[in-house]
Amino acid sequence: MDIPKASVLLFFPLTLALGLVTRNLLLLFGALPTGGYLLDPSNLINGIFVGHAFEIFAALFGIVSYYTFQVYKMILPVSVDDKTNQKIISGQISKVVIITTWLIVTKVWFFGDSLFDRLQEHTGATCQYPEGLEKLIARNDNYSSCERAGGLWTGGFRASGHLFILTTVLGSLAFEWRSVFVKDPSFSRWGLIPTAIVMAFWILMFWVTSIFFHTVIEKVIGIAIALAFLSILYISKACAYVNIN
């Protein structure tokens, strides 16, 4: 069963478009909520499924890798002479390392602030320090120092980190499961259940973010960066050595 790779990528701009249409309809009828459980960044769903997205992704990637070995008739331990086995195992390990490293340097740490934070700093972001602390803090405005001081990091240009992360993890897992389906559409579906549950929550958070948070350009840029990465990793010939099909 063939599943076009383009269909994986198209899901995200189409879902964003649906979110923007929903937002405009809510505005048209004057019913755009400004509060509620899902709109609270500290809600449990956001805290678990976005706050721990990296760890959850790694676990789910392990599950789909197991099924990849199964459907491609991989038998462990691997024979040193079995080049096919070696390619698949090294490919799966390489991909999870590449994806995790990409997420870390863009959103968590890159010799200090992450790449996303550096972009915001260089486009005019400033820290609004708590009242009374401005004169007590050595001014070295960056995201990390602002956060440590309990300040509010505002201004500058920022791509949507939520949509960037969600597009990356959802897209990566979708490409991995596509590879399994293409090889054996009749494989046991039990391993897909935890992935489907988590992906449902991620899609919910994607949709909520596309409706209620960030400007349109911030959302588009966040998704575009993730799609460019996924295209290079899963579609371009540059990374063909880590993919089975």
TrEMBL record:
Pfam assignment, any one: FIT
Single GO term (MF): coenzyme A diphosphatase activity
One annotated GO biological process: lipid droplet organization
Topology class, membrane: Multi-pass membrane protein
Domain of life of the organism encoding this protein: Eukaryota
Keyword Lipid metabolism attributed: yes
Entry's transmembrane regions: 47-69, 159-178, 190-214, 220-244
One GO CC term, this protein: endoplasmic reticulum membrane
Primary subcellular site in the record, as a coarse category: endoplasmic reticulum
Subcellular location as annotated: Endoplasmic reticulum membrane
UniProt KW keywords: Endoplasmic reticulum, Hydrolase, Lipid metabolism, Membrane, Transmembrane, Transmembrane helix
Name of this protein: Uncharacterized protein
Biological source species: Komagataella phaffii (strain GS115 / ATCC 20864) (Yeast)
